[in-house]
Automatic annotation (TrEMBL):
Cellular compartment(s): Membrane
Keywords: Membrane, Metal-binding, Sodium, Symport, Transmembrane, Transmembrane helix, Transport
GO process annotations (BP): L-leucine transport
Main location: membrane
Transmembrane segments: 74-92, 104-125, 146-173, 228-248, 257-276, 296-313, 325-346, 450-475, 487-505, 525-542, 563-586, 606-629
Binding site for Na(+): G80, V83, N87, N331, L462, S466
Pfam families in UniProt: SNF
Membrane topology: Multi-pass membrane protein
Identification of the protein by name: Transporter
The keyword Glycoprotein belongs to this UniProt entry's keyword annotation: no
Region (Disordered) location: 660-706
InterPro entries noted in UniProt: Na/ntran_symport (IPR000175), SNS_sf (IPR037272)
Length: 724
C-alpha cells in the first residue's frame, strides 16, 4: 500500500506513544487519522468470538493481558479484598457498642443507599475503561486525574500499617505451637528466696502482659522510640515477602484458606443472646448512623482503587451489577457470621471471668463473716465451706440480702456484682479483641493450641486477601500509566514499604499504627469517593453512563441507581464528610498508651510534632486532586501531551477467531477516517478500530499483558467519552 497522508501500513511491532486524549477521542482529524487508528474490515460470515491479539514481531509470539481464569476466581478476589480484618474485629465491636442486633438495621439501610451503588459504580467504570484508577479518572476528565493518584497514595498508607497487623498475627501464629500457650499464665521471676509474679502481669492479666510486653515490648508513649523490636521486624519481613512473591507471580486473588466459622458451644449462648437483644433506643442517635455509614464505606474497599483494578481485567460484557450485589451481601453476611463467632467466644470468656469473680468474692464474704457480715445473712442452702460449689445464682442471692441489710456499709465491703452482662458490655475492638480477649478465651478451650493456630491462620489469610487488593490498587494504575515492568515495580514497592514500615516495629510502633489507621484513610477516601460519584454523575453525565451500562450489560440498570448516583448518595456522603470533620475538630488527636508502671492503658494527646504528622497524612493523601486539577486548568501540563497522561502501547489489531489463517491482511487495510466520514460497511462486515485502553466485547485478554493495557473497539458510539 502506498504511503500517503491519510493511511499507512506500518510494522505491527512499532512502539507508538499517544496521549490519553488522543487514545480516547473519537473525533480524529482526517489528515492525522493514520496516527491514531487503522480500520480492519472482516468480510467473513458468521459471528466469531472477538479477542485481542498482538503480533510482537517476526516470531509471531503473542502476549496476553492478564485476565481472570474464571468468574469464580474474580468473585473470590473481590470478596477477599472486601472481607478483611475489619469484619472480624471492627463490625462486632460496633454491633456490641451500638445496640446489638438493632445496629444491623441502619447498617443494612446504608449498605443499600451508599454501599451497593458506589460499589457498582466502581466495578462498572473499571470494567468499561479497562484501566487502573489513574487511567480511569484521566479518561473521565484529565482535570480529575488526581483522583487516581490520591487513591494510590491512600492505598500505600494503608498497606504500610495493614501488613504490620499481619506480621503480629504471624508472630502469634508461630507461638501457638506450644502446650500450654505462652500467654496462658503470668511469668515468674526467680530470685534467691522465692519466685514471684512479674508485677506488670499481676496488675493486668497474662494475655494483656504478653501482648504489650512480650510481643510489642511497647514504650510508655509515642515520643519514646525505644529502638526496633527484632521479633516483629522479622515477622514484618516475612509478611512483605509473602505479598511480594504473590504479586510477582500474578496472584490477584486469595481464596480463604480457612474461615473460623464454628460456634463454640461453651457458654456461647449468653453472648449470642446479648447480640440479639436489641436496644432500639440507640437507633435514634446520629452517632450510630455515622458509624454504620463509615463501616459500610470501608467494608467494601471503596475509593482504594482495588475494586477498579480487579474489574479492569474482566470481559467487557460481564454482569458487574450482579457482582456488586453478590459481593456486597457476601460481605454483610460474613460480618454477621463473624459477629456471631465473636459474641460466642466473648460469651464463653464472660462465663469464665464471671465464675472467677464469684469464687473470688465468695472468699471475701467468708473472710468477712463475723467481721462485718453476720452469718445469719447467708441463706441456709448455701454451703460456704465449699466455695467452688457456690453458683452465680447463689452469690447474687447473698449480695442482694447483704446489700439490703448493709445499705450504708455495702460499698466499703468491696464486693463486686459479678454480672455476665457487665462483662459482655465491655466493648473491645481491634487488637484488644484479637490479641487479648480472644487469646484469653482460647486458653480455656480444650486443645487450646489447635484453636489458636486456626484463629491466627484465619487472621493471616483475611489480611493477605485485603493486602493483595490494596497492592493491586497501587500497581495496576502505575503500570498502566508509566509503563514499567510489573516485576520491578512490585519489588520496588514492597522494599520501600518494608523500609518505611520499620517505623511500626519499633517499641512505639503500635502508636503509629493507631495514628495511620485514624488519619491516613478516613477523610481522604471520603473525599475521593465523593469526587468519583460527582465525576460520573455530573461531569461525565449520568444519562451517558446509563447508555454505556446498557450497551455493556445488555440491559438498562434499575432507575434506582440513577437517583442514587445523581442525588441521594452524594448528599449522604457530604453529610458523612461534614460529620467526620466536626468529630475531628471536636476531639483533639489522641492515642491510647500502655503505662508499664501502672499496667494499664491511658489516653494521651499527641505531641505537637505528632499533630503535624496527622495533618500531613490527610493533606498528602488528598493533595494530588487539587494539584493535578490546577496543572490542567492553567495548562501548565498540556492535556494532550503531558507525561501524566501519556500511554505507550504496541501496535496491534482486533481479529476474529473465525478468520481464515494466512489471509492477506493488506486487503483489510483501508484509509483511516473519522467515524463520521468512514463509509458504512456492507452487511456482514465487521469494522473495528485498533486503539489502546480497553477491550471490546468478550475481550478478556489483551496484548502487552505485562503492562495491563487493552484495546478498544472502534464502534465509538458505544464507548464512553470524556466531556472535558
Amino acid at each position: 500500500m502506498p504511503k500517503n497522508s491519510k493511511a499507512v501500513k506500518r510494522e505491527l511491532d512499532d512502539d507508538v506513544t499517544e496521549s490519553v486524549k488522543d487514545l480516547l477521542s473519537n473525533e480524529d482529524a482526517c489528515d492525522d487519522s493514520f496516527k491514531k487508528s487503522s480500520l480492519i474490515v472482516n468480510n467473513h460470515e458468521g459471528e466469531g468470538k472477538e479477542c485481542d491479539v498482538e503480533e510482537g514481531g517476526s516470531d509471531g509470539e503473542e502476549e496476553e493481558r492478564p485476565a481472570w481464569n474464571s468468574k469464580l476466581q474474580y468473585i473470590l478476589a473481590q470478596v477477599g479484598f472486601s472481607v478483611g480484618l475489619g469484619n472480624v474485629w471492627r463490625f462486632p465491636y460496633l454491633c456490641q457498642k451500638n445496640g446489638g442486633g438493632a445496629y444491623l438495621v441502619p447498617y443494612l439501610i446504608l449498605l443499600i443507599l451508599i454501599g451497593i451503588p458506589l460499589f457498582f459504580l466502581e466495578l462498572a467504570v473499571g470494567q468499561r475503561i479497562r484501566r487502573g484508577s489513574i487511567g480511569v479518572w484521566n479518561y473521565i476528565s484529565p482535570r480529575l486525574g488526581g483522583i487516581g493518584f490520591a487513591s494510590c497514595v491512600v492505598c500505600f498508607f494503608v498497606a504500610l500499617y495493614y501488613n504490620v497487623i499481619i506480621s503480629w498475627s504471624l508472630f502469634y501464629f508461630s507461638q501457638s505451637f506450644q502446650q500450654p500457650l505462652p500467654w496462658h499464665e503470668c511469668p515468674l521471676v526467680k530470685n534467691k528466696t522465692s519466685p514471684y509474679v512479674v508485677p506488670e502481669c499481676e496488675k493486668s492479666s497474662a494475655t494483656t502482659y504478653y501482648w504489650y510486653r512480650e510481643a510489642l515490648d511497647i514504650s510508655n508513649s509515642i515520643s519514646e522510640g525505644g529502638g526496633l523490636n527484632w521479633k516483629m521486624t522479622v515477622c514484618l519481613l516475612v509478611a512483605w515477602s509473602m505479598v511480594c512473591l504473590a504479586m510477582i507471580k500474578g496472584i490477584q486473588s486469595s481464596g480463604k484458606v480457612m474461615y473460623f466459622s464454628s460456634l463454640f458451644p461453651y457458654g456461647s449462648i449468653d453472648g449470642i443472646r446479648h447480640m440479639f437483644t436489641p436496644k432500639l433506643e440507640i437507633m435514634l442517635e446520629a452517632k450510630v448512623w455515622r458509624e454504620a455509614a463509615t463501616q459500610v464505606f470501608f467494608a467494601l474497599g471503596l475509593g482504594f482503587g482495588g475494586v477498579i483494578a480487579f474489574s479492569s481485567y474482566n470481559k467487557r460484557d460481564n454482569n458487574c451489577h450482579f457482582d456488586a450485589v453478590l459481593v456486597s451481601f457476601i460481605n454483610f453476611f460474613t460480618s454477621v457470621l463473624a459477629t456471631l463467632v465473636v459474641f460466642a467466644v466473648l460469651g464463653f470468656k464472660a462465663n469464665i471471668m464471671n465464675s472467677k469473680c464469684v469464687a473470688l468474692n465468695t472468699n471475701k464474704i467468708v473472710a468477712l463473716l463475723g467481721n462485718g457480715i453476720e452469718e445469719s445473712l447467708i441463706p441456709h442452702h448455701i454451703n460456704l465451706t465449699q466455695v467452688s460449689q457456690v453458683s452465680a445464682e447463689d452469690y447474687h442471692q447473698m449480695i442482694d440480702i447483704i446489700r439490703g441489710v448493709k445499705e450504708d456499709e455495702y460499698r466499703q465491703l468491696g464486693l463486686e456484682s459479678c454480672s455476665i452482662e457487665d462483662e459482655l458490655n465491655k466493648a473491645v475492638q481491634g487488637t484488644g479483641l484479637a490479641f487479648i480477649a480472644f487469646t484469653e478465651a482460647m486458653t480455656h478451650f480444650p486443645a487450646s493450641p489447635f484453636w489458636s493456630v486456626m484463629f491466627f491462620l484465619m487472621l493471616v489469610n483475611l489480611g493477605l486477601g485485603s493486602m493483595f487488593g490494596t497492592i493491586e490498587g497501587i500497581l495496576t494504575p502505575l503500570i498502566d500509566t508509566f509503563k514499567v515492568r510489573k516485576e520491578f515495580l512490585t519489588v520496588g514497592c514492597c522494599v520501600l514499604a518494608f523500609s518505611i514500615g520499620l517505623l511500626f516495629v519499633q517499641r512505639s510502633g503500635n502508636y503509629f499504627v493507631a495514628m495511620f489507621d485514624d488519619y491516613s484513610a478516613t477523610l481522604p477516601l471520603l473525599i475521593v469517593v465523593i469526587l468519583e460519584n460527582v465525576a460520573i454523575a455530573w461531569f461525565y453525565g449520568i444519562d451517558k453512563f446509563f447508555e454505556d451500562l446498557k450497551d455493556m450489560l445488555g440491559f438498562t440498570p434499575y432507575r434506582f441507581y440513577y437517583y442514587m448516583w445523581k442525588f441521594i448518595t452524594p448528599i449522604l456522603l457530604m453529610v458523612l464528610l461534614c460529620s467526620s470533620f466536626i468529630q475531628l475538630i471536636m476531639t483533639p488527636p489522641s492515642y491510647s498508651a500502655w503505662i508499664q508502671e501502672e499496667a494499664k492503658e491511658k489516653n494521651l494527646h499527641f505531641p505537637p510534632w505528632g499533630i503535624v504528622v496527622c495533618i500531613s497524612l490527610v493533606v498528602m493523601a488528598i493533595m494530588p486532586v487539587p494539584v493535578v486539577f490546577g496543572l490542567r486548568y492553567f495548562n501548565i501540563i498540556d492535556e494532550n501531551t503531558s507525561g501524566l497522561s501519556t500511554v505507550s502501547y504496541k501496535k496491534g489489531r482486533i481479529i476474529k477467531e473465525s478468520a481464515r489463517p494466512g489471509e492477506d491482511d493488506d486487503a483489510s487495510l483501508i484509509q483511516g477516517k473519522s467515524p463520521s466520514e468512514a463509509p458504512s460497511p456492507m452487511p456482514g462486515n465487521s469494522i473495528y478500530r485498533k486503539q489502546s485502553g480497553s477491550g471490546g466485547p468478550d475481550a478478556d485478554t489483551a496484548p502487552n499483558g505485562r503492562y495491563g493495557i487493552g484495546y478498544l473497539m472502534a464502534d465509538m458510539p458505544d464507548m464512553p467519552e470524556s466531556d472535558l
